[in-house]
Amino acid sequence: MDYEAFFTGALDELKGEGRYRIFAELERRAGAYPRARRHGGTGPDEVTVWCSNDYLGMGQHPKVLGAIHDTLDRCGAGAGGTRNIAGTTHQHVCLERELADLHGKESALLFTSGYVSNWAALGTLGARIPNLVILSDAGNHASMIEGIRHSRAERQVFAHNDWRDLDRRLAALPKDQPKLVAFESVYSMDGDIAPIAEILDVCEAHGAMSYIDEVHAVGLYGPRGGGIAEREGLMDRITVIEGTLGKAFGVLGGYIAASSALCDFVRSFSSGFIFTTALPPALAAGAAASIRHLKDSSEERQGQQDRVATVRARLKAVGIPVMDNDSHIIPVMVGNPVHCKQISDWLLEEYGIYVQPINYPTVPRGTERLRITPSPVHTAEDVDKLVDALSEIWSRCALSRVAVAA
Ligand code: PMP
Predict the structure, then answer these.
(1) Each residue's pLDDT tens digit in the chain (406 positions)?
(2) Does the reported pTM lie above 0.90?
(3) Candidates 51, 115, 122, 220: which one to mutate for ligand 1, based on the most atoms within 8 Å of Cβ?
């Protein structure tokens, strides 16, 4: 086989479909978020980032940076081993306590990313609980899908957010078969929110465990940033809450929070936990500082919600097609991968506005979009510039606008 020809052929196919990904090379600057320096390209050197998952700007927060600096100076760079062998530091243990407390659970278990936490936890539960059937929401993230696949457990996919479909499927299974229902709270690309209470009612009626991915909600919702389940008073009814430290908390890492027995079980049997180097202690300390701050302060959450409402209203007022939802994610619908890339390029090169195009397979074909994520540190002037730029581009391409109510 001509391996090189195979690789370039596959990439050419992606390019032909307008789906080939080109990364913007950014240099984030402490204290200057959402501004970043862009390397390469022909547009402005300084850009305003409108598509980051550092939703609250915590990746630049003085308390987070202070904790990281301090721990780095005292403890050095790496953890020095896997959690099993020399890599469990005081910072990891403190962070796990902080996370268990955040979700009102007995215990929490850290992983190197949210992806790994889903993959490892679902993979382990699915592989190790005899005869387990996993019911997975049709909109679930790749990390959950891969974890479930990897487990080789029996799997059923239920219609997205459709607790009635879930109910029918659970009812059709043998009463004594172990069951686990995996779903998310805020879905990252449409920004829609799961009917958690109804799903939990159904799980409880059929004796199923529940596993919720709150990756796009932790830090952002609930009085202490525990997520949508905290906001809705449902955390104690959920078997496993999974989250990330890499988005609203601004650092890196993933976790599950659950009973002591379940966390200990995953800790003891999961290869994705056991056989990999632990997170650097400085990052664990930074994440703990971020969680602690957001437990006490709602200022960032409120600032973000205000900014989201303004951006959404302003885009709608000029007829830009925004998908409606009740979260902080604003999908601007384009519906064509080539247009989506072109709009993103113009925003970057002409206006210094960075919004990465989102294409298949991240979203279904025909629903290509720009995913805008306002933060509390975007200014009113940033909003004006974004709305004016998108409006100008929409006119330039004669893209259809949504009728604006008089
Ligand atoms: N779950 C969902 C729903 C996600 O969107 C993502 C990442 N985009 C992850 C898990 C993985 O989290 P992390 O980025 O921390 O690996």
Answers:
(1) 999 999 999 999 999 887 888 888 999 998 899 999 999 888 889 999 999 999 999 999 999 999 999 999 999 999 999 999 999 999 999 999 999 999 999 999 999 999 999 999 999 999 999 999 999 999 999 999 999 999 999 999 999 999 999 999 999 999 999 999 999 999 999 999 999 999 999 999 999 999 999 999 999 999 999 999 999 999 999 999 999 999 999 999 999 999 999 999 999 999 999 999 999 999 999 999 999 999 999 999 999 999 999 999 999 999 999 999 999 999 999 999 889 999 999 999 999 999 999 999 899 999 999 999 999 999 999 999 999 999 999 998 877 776 654 4
(2) yes
(3) 115
Query: 33 exposed, middle or buried (CB, 10 Å; 0-12, 13-18, 19+)?
Result: buried
385 is catalytic: no
List where CATH 3.90.1150.10 sits in the chain.
35-49+299-397
Marked catalytic residue, from 179, 247, 316, 341: 247
State the Rg of the chain over Cα. Answer: 22
In the three-class reduction of DSSP (H, G, I as helix; E, B as strand; rest coil), residue 193 is classed as strand
**Mutational pocket test of ligand 1: of 54, 244, 279, the residue with most ligand atoms within 8 Å of the beta carbon:** 244
CATH number of this structure's domain 35-49+299-397: 3.90.1150.10
> Which residue's CA is the closest to the ligand 1 atom numbered 12?
114
Residues with CB under 6 A from ligand 1: 113-115, 118, 141, 143, 184, 188, 213, 215-216, 244, 246, 254
CATH number, domain 62-296: 3.40.640.10
Cα–Cα nearest to 95, from 81, 82, 83, 109: 109
State in Å: Cα 6 to ligand 1 middle.
30
Query: CA 170: distance to chain centroid?
Result: 28
Q: How far is the CA of 251 from the centre of ligand 1 (A)?
A: 13
Q: Which two tokens stand for residue 294?
A: 């957001």
